[in-house]
């Protein structure tokens, strides 16, 4: 379930956006004046988001483990498993290894995406952020259903690659591309927050 895009895309990702929607409410003045700089305030908010994303994913994992209690035990992926599990089985010798890597990658990706959306929420109008969010989700659903080979190799447009580890096993160097693009997102966030946090985009 933690690798199944038919669960992650229509359910987990929707919950992710729902959590962010409520998290992006403006803080009260007494919260803001306690921070020495906006950069520090933003770093604290980003750290809190990362903690929330960690708890969010671990709760999902705990539910799956509870549901799986009583199933036959085994240390390998059976040959009749779905295709995506067979793909994962070619890279990991144990399902537990795959679970750990998948969960860590999902926490890492969701934390960076959450921080990115928080950055966009600061610089852009709420309507613009909502449009960007909807478009990225539509592209995510399209990537899940599309049969076009290599479509999801385009970085930044398809956030599936930053949430679902299995997507990074579909072609050589896919994981490297995802990690580099995530690093570029982090670098962009740091640059704009440190240099332009006091400015907002105005629409004419």
Strand content: under 5%
> What is the β-strand count?
0
Low-confidence stretches: 200-204
Radius of gyration: 19 Å
Largest sheet: none
Number of helices: 8
Derived from helix and strand composition plus strand pairing, the structural class reads mainly alpha
Order of helices and strands: HHHHHHHH
Mean pLDDT: 82
Tell me, what's the shape?
Answer: globular
What is the CA-CA span between the terminal residues? 46 Å
Tell me the helix content: 55-70%
Could you please describe the fold and organization of this structure?
The protein has 204 residues and is mostly helical. Helices cover 67% and strands 0% of the residues. The protein is built from eight helices and no strands. The protein is globular. It starts with a helix and ends in an 8-residue tail after the last helix. 21% of the residues are buried.
Topology:
Blueprint lengths: L4 H19 L5 H4 L5 H30 L15 H7 L5 H29 L2 H20 L14 H4 L10 H23 L8
Helix pairs in contact: 1-6, 3-5, 5-8
Short description:
With 204 residues, this protein is mostly helical. It contains eight helices and no strands.
Any descriptors?
disordered C terminus; 8 helices; mainly alpha
């Amino acid at each position: 379930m933690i690798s199944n895009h038919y669960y992650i895309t229509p359910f987990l990702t929707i919950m992710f956006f729902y959590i962010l929607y409520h998290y992006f409410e403006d803080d009260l003045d007494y919260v803001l004046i306690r921070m020495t700089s906006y950069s520090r305030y933003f770093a604290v908010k980003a750290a809190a988001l990362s903690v929330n994303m960690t708890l969010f994913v671990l709760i999902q994992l705990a539910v799956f483990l509870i549901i799986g209690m009583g199933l036959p035990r085994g240390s390998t992926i059976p040959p009749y498993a779905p295709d995506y599990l067979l793909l994962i089985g070619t890279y990991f010798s144990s399902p537990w290894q795959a679970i750990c890597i998948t969960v860590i990658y999902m926490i890492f990706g969701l934390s960076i995406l959450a921080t990115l959306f928080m950055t966009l929420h600061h610089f852009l109008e709420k309507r613009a952020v909502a449009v960007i969010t909807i478009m990225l989700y539509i592209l995510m659903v399209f990537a899940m259903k599309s049969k076009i080979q290599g479509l999801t190799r385009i970085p930044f447009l398809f956030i599936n690659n930053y949430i679902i580890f299995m997507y990074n096993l579909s072609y050589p160097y896919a994981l490297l591309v995802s990690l580099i693009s995530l690093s570029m997102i982090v670098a962009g966030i740091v640059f704009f927050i440190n240099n332009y946090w006091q400015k907002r985009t105005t629409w004419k």
